[in-house]
Amino acid sequence: MKKIILSLFATALLIACSENTDVQEEVLINNDGVQTAELRKCFASENFDKMMLNPEYQKNVQLIEDQTQSYIADMELQAKKGKPGGKPSGGGGTPVGDNLGVVNIPVLVHVIYSNNAENISDAQINSQIAVLNQDFRKSNSDVNQVPSQFADLAADSEVTFTLAGVTRKASSRTSWGTNNAMKSSANGGVDVVDPANYLNIWVCNIGGGILGYAQFPGGSAATDGVVISPQYFGNTGSVSAPFDQGRTATHEVGHYLNLRHIWGDGRCNRDDFVSDTPTSDRANYGCPTYPTTNCRSADMTMNYMDYTNDACMYMFSSGQKARMRALFAAGGARESLIK
Ligand SMILES: [Zn+2]
Questions:
Q1: Residue 64: in which H helix or E strand, if any?
Q2: pLDDT tens-digit readout, 196-207
């Protein structure tokens, strides 16, 4: 089959606290516009860049970043003073002593389907909730594959998820794209439900080789949540290798909890705002061998926020844990979720 290389130049505009750089991504597609290689592709960063064109959202992002950095500085200070407050983060690394303990996020799943395979079973939905709980509590069975260089950084994020409800809606639409149509009943989708108190996940076919996308904190309530295509949701039922172990949701919920891609969506000096993740200038795909060196250090390719296959990502870092948990602290952007 004839292949062409499509170069996407996504100019990352107006990202607070980082310089503007051009990001080039290459996606292999065939002449029918279908991806030939099984490469992870999420749309969360593009969605973020689009939202950052709105000055109101820019302001929100800056406020959230300020609160996050202040929380992290406070936690580091407490750790230096040896104050209790907290438990050490799982696996060592920077202790996080926010006194919140394990926090639970109630989840609503909206299944929008045009065929039987897309109308995923309750078992498939439950399998996804189970994977989220394992990955965010560092009880995933593959965490022992983390190389010793990073083993001390692998964190129990102390976040759990409970399925609070499932809605199902039949539709003749076969692909939904990335413009949030699935989040609007006026467009044939399902309206968001109480996003201050629930993580909303829409499961519908996105199309275009996109596995999923998330809305970072600080955006419109009407579109808050995560979207994932049904064949990448959960680890049983109608799932499709190599993204058949539920890690797409782990990655997207990471974005929803304010984690950036681990390479910072840019060159070596572009940051993911997490101090214990190595710098990199690119996504890693497939199942890379360790060490994979970019920007003069080994990439943390096994991090959930890289672009590797489900079987080859199995950790969040302590720094990522702190960044996520800042949202639940007093004044945090997702504080209401856990109340
Ligand atoms: Zn992503």
A1: helix 55-81
A2: 999 999 999 999
